[in-house]
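does this look right to u?? calcium ion version
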Amino acid sequence: MRRPVIAAIFWAIGPLAFAQVAPGPNVNPRAVWSKPPEMFTSRVVASGFEDPWEVTYGPDGWLWITERVGKRVVRVDPASGTRKVAITIDEVQQLLAQDGLLGLALHPQLLRGSNYVYVMYTYDADPGPAAERRSKIRRYTYDATTQQLGEPVDLLTNLPHGPDHGASRIVFGPDSKLYASRGDHGSNFLAYHCEPIRAQELPTAADVAARDWQRYQGKILRIDLDGSIPADNPVLGGVRSHVFSYGHRNPQGLAFGPDGRLYESEHGQDTDDEVNRIEAGRNYGWPLIAGYKDDLYYTYANWSASAPTPCASLTYGRDVPSTVPRTKESDVNLPDFTPPLKTFFTVPSTHDTRALGNATAALAGLDVYTSTAIPGWNPSILVAGMMSGTIFRFPLAGGAEPPLTYFKAQDRYRDLAISPDGRHIYAVTDAHGRVLTAAGEPTTEFEHPGALLEFTYVK
Ligand SMILES: [Ca+2]
Ligand SMILES: [Ca+2]
Ligand SMILES: [Ca+2]
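got this back:
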């Protein structure tokens, strides 16, 4: 099972029929596969992972993977597929679809003097029999001799983590700070539609004094390496906290570019997955604005504010009852609003969701490609699409052109890594969920569930 297998040569003898269709009113753009000129081979490096969530290329030449459900940090040799468990974290609480062991970041001096590895995961903060779901960032020290992680130090604990939309990607910044993403808990949506979204709420001075981080929902955090609040973090509403930016929905992708700037991807509701350039103190709009401030398709409906009929008496669905207040994007004034670099996808207000489905690719992990190995790619954003079953690429500078799709498969791509020579792209895939077939129909059948895949550039 762990033997490397050549699965396909993409584009040359790819098993699927690819359409190159310009999105129109009767085409869902999330099911439009482009046909780029580059050719890749693909191979299953290893499989049988319990919902791998992060994959990172380490300075040891191995891939470091978190298993969300498996609660393990696993290292995999990309050449042989050999895997070694660096640690199983028993304290991880894993009960739902977006909790468990999630983010992982390596100290840039790993194996060169600072053998620190940072992880982010959910745990039970209640010491008694009750359960209190929270998230924490913990630092481990890697012992290169035993190839084990040990010496745990909790850097930041008691972070809020809801039943859905948990985000939790972490990266190590060029400024030697940790950046971590927090989701909106799935509030105002599906089973949690009567919970208000708190992505626009900013921490108060009293919150910070009490180390009450509940308002860290829907935020990107910037954290000193000991877990404290950096002295140069932005002051928002008169308060300096860990909050670096706000107004996020479910930001599962974070990576720094060669320009030293932070790039982020987040999963939209029915439309408007976003890739953003994250800047200090900026507001990325959610839930008042989705994608661009254009009044296309999305209107904020605040279910928790339903009156006089209380939300609890309402049935959640696409038809929003008249008692639920609605706010047009053009009616809100967010002085620090920053539009996305790109959306996947903004559709016209006439988009027929019932007939065509949601226009989201369901974006997850993101990386910035900075190698010259693949002509024309430097620099590009690569971002994993779970529902689309594709990796998207577009120039770092953004632009109006639709993103190119690569590696279309019946697999939910969760995260990415790029080899230092730029010739290999690695992706980890979910073991559960839904993805589109080549014909654009949803299915729960995967080609490679819970796998580590390698795509090698040929020409
Ligand atoms: Ca990654
Ligand atoms: Ca936004
Ligand atoms: Ca919009």
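Residues 1-5, 11-21 have pLDDT under 50 and may be disordered. idk if thats expected tbh
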